[in-house]
Amino acid sequence: MDNQNLTKWIENIVKGFVLNSDDNTLQDKNNQKAWAEPLVGFSNGADPIFESYKEYVGSFHFTPYEWFHMTFPSISVQPEQLTVISYILPQTDATKSDNRKETLVPSESWARARIFGEEVNVKLRRHLVKNLEAAGYQALAPQLSSEWGRKPSEQYVFASNWSERHAAYAAGLGTFGLCDGLITPKGKAMRTGSVIANFQIPPTVRPYREHHEYCLFFTAGKCKKCIARCPAGALSEAGHDKIKCRSYMHPMTDEYVKTHYHFDGYGCGLCQTGVPCESKIPTVKDVE
User: How far apart, in Å, are the Cα atoms of 259 and each of 107, 181, 263?
Assistant: First the structure.
């Protein structure tokens, strides 16, 4: 399969699963879809950005080559022979509308997207790996590996040894906002996933030069709408206080979701909705 056909084939696998699979559901009474049509991007395993994450995220953050070598120790490859497939799963219009109305707790659909929507994401990772393996390519999803884990971070309080958002940033799919969310062409209200595979295709061009390029606070000194949306007081011009954020979600939103929505879950996402970057890359006109 040539590069162009391989790229299109992978995009079709990801988009086809989300658009057509019965697994893409919030598991609510109306069986609403968990995710809208995805975005897909690619980065090369030898991209220097992955080595830079050892500095910016933590020395514990594995490169694509390290993940592949741990998973397939008997297979000899060079970093440049690997491709990282990243995708964005945008929240549906209905879920964004529901959560936009909230000021203290997540809407039911948002909480369902956090729990059952992530189950869809897990199935999509497995589905993509399975299709790649059937076509003769070794592939793995770091998030599904027993080696994946969260780590204490001197700079970021806690992080993980593979960041899905940073993989998406490397693949040209978005830049980070004041609240740490990834602002993509389909907005910040989304989740993301990735798979590392043993083939080489041209990477997606990153249309930005700086990791905050799509955030109006950093580029224009404007907006700060996410600060006002945060019920935990975890956002300020200094950035995202992860301790305050986590302390608000657990146990407060856990208890609320269980009591009011009657399933075990949690969530918030208020800083991802009701803001100019909810569904697109914002412009200064959006806050004037």
Answer: 13, 28, 8
Name the residue type at position 147: E
Cβ(211)–Cβ(176) below 8 Å: yes
Q: How far apart are CA 114 and CA 269, in angstroms?
A: 9
Buried b (16+ CB within 10 A) or exposed e, 224-246: bbbbebbebebbeeeebbeeebe
27 backbone dihedrals φ, ψ, rounded to 5°? 60, 40
Q: What amino acid is encoded at 52 in this protein?
A: S
Q: At 47, which amino acid appears?
A: D
Q: How far apart are CA 175 and CA 75, in angstroms?
A: 34
| Verdict on whether the full-model pTM lies above 0.90 | yes
Beta bridge partners of 193: 87
Retrieve residue 242's tokens.
Answer: 């992860």
Residue 64 token pair: 């694509």
Alpha helices in 221-279 (DSSP H): 225-229, 242-247, 254-256
Report pLDDT digits (tens) over 151-184: 887 777 789 999 999 999 999 999 999 999 999 9
